[in-house]
């Protein structure tokens, strides 16, 4: 089954912005000035829009071939005549016709296999000079087709050429006056853009890209804090729901999403094991009280009083280490074993309760 990665988009600027997503070039194309960025994946987002906005990106590559009266170049709109889903290791034969008459290419599986983690496009020996003299221009593309549109790159193929491509799942998210399927310069695409890479920018196949009100970008692993809060509401009691809603409105200055890097239980291992064993033997469980310290990815931005994980609330008792080390306690009906299994490295938590 195809793996999907979701890039959540947040616009904290003062105006509506159109977000574009571009797939970065494979290393083999990185220094080729005749390869242009090509994307039709865009989304206009209002200032501080409370709705959920995202690009959902499947790990499914596509190759494309086309021919038209438009020469490959900046600001030219290019759409492939034919495209095929592809995996690494595959070889594709792109066959371009000699004109007249004007005719589109074919794109079929080739023989043999490509190098490890790569794919190949093999172009036939067509008469490029005569075709272009007659106003008929060939194009070739590689990228990812998403529900939001195509994101990839386009170039003019040379006759009797084999392109070897080693894809990397890395993306630019940018705002600007790009055109739908209009070829763009990579410098224009990458300048002042957020860069996202798999797996480092993601947690649970999700990351959040925020355009801040000063025009810079923030990239954080996981879902936006607003989504985590909403997901936790259904698991909390009425009093806790009221507290969460009262603190946020959804006010991102009064909450913070973060990722747990490590967990240290201040109860000794023996004491924690004893508590777990006692609870397993007890016919009726009383409240469990645990304390510990977590380290988180990003320093806390406010004096938060608690954090929430999967509907379970923990109390913040102090911070150290420039705000990345957080002392906490738990006092509730969950067993010690359940809490120990829940709060682990990699967990996505949301801090709240800041004044």
In short:
With 355 residues, the protein is mainly beta. The protein is built from six helices and 23 strands. The protein starts with a strand and ends with a strand.
Going by helix content, strand content and strand pairing, the class is mainly beta
Helix content: 10-25%
Main β sheet profile: 6 strands, antiparallel, barrel
Strand order of the largest sheet: 18-19-22-21-20-23
What is the global morphology? elongated
The poorly predicted ranges are 246-250
Total strands: the figure is 23
Describe this structure in words.
The protein is mostly beta strands and 355 residues long. The chain contains 6 helices and 23 strands. The chain has helices spanning 128-133, 186-190, 225-233, 238-248, 269-281, 336-342; strands at 4-11, 17-23, 36-39, 42-45, 54-58, 61-68, 82-86, 91-95, 106-109, 119-123, 137-146, 149-155, 162-165, 170-175, 194-197, 206-211, 217-221, 256-265, 288-296, 306-309, 312-320, 325-332, 348-352. It has a 6-stranded antiparallel beta barrel with strand order 18-19-22-21-20-23. Strands 3-12-11-6-7 form a 5-stranded antiparallel β-sheet. A 4-stranded mixed β-sheet has the order 5-1-16-17, with no helix packed on it. The radius of gyration is 26 Å and the shape is elongated. It starts with a strand and ends with a strand. Mean pLDDT is 86; it is low at 246-250.
Give the helices and strands, then pairings:
Layout: E1 4-11, E2 17-23, E3 36-39, E4 42-45, E5 54-58, E6 61-68, E7 82-86, E8 91-95, E9 106-109, E10 119-123, H1 128-133, E11 137-146, E12 149-155, E13 162-165, E14 170-175, H2 186-190, E15 194-197, E16 206-211, E17 217-221, H3 225-233, H4 238-248, E18 256-265, H5 269-281, E19 288-296, E20 306-309, E21 312-320, E22 325-332, H6 336-342, E23 348-352
Parallel strand pairs: 1-16, 8-10
Antiparallel strand pairs: 1-5, 2-4, 2-14, 3-12, 6-7, 6-11, 8-9, 10-13, 11-12, 14-15, 16-17, 18-19, 18-23, 19-22, 20-21, 20-23, 21-22
